[in-house]
Specification:
The chain is an all-alpha fold. The chain contains four helices and no strands.
């Protein structure tokens, strides 16, 4: 995706927060865990599921809707069963 970001709004804190959220929700990314993926394909599937859930299903308290709804990608709240149907 190409755009023209506003330089005054660029911050590493957004990236660091996203990294923390991924590590907390996807135990595959933390050290000393037995929930690792042996195959790269399994890891990619787990990450895709996490991002789909995070963007389409989980209501975020700061914006009181899902990020996909805020970006006008969808107009309804998805359920996990919707993600399963797409998989």
């Amino acid at each position: 995706m190409v755009g023209a970001p506003k330089l005054g709004q660029i911050s590493t804190s957004h990236v660091e927060r996203q990294n923390l959220t991924m590590r907390m929700h996807c135990r595959r990314l933390t050290r000393l865990t037995n929930a690792f993926s042996k195959k790269l394909e399994s890891f990619k599937a787990a990450m895709a599921l996490h991002f789909a859930y995070y963007n389409f299903v989980k209501i975020h308290s700061s914006i009181r809707m899902t990020p996909a709804m805020a970006a006008k990608v969808t107009d309804r709240l998805w359920e996990v069963s919707d993600l399963v149907k797409l998989a």
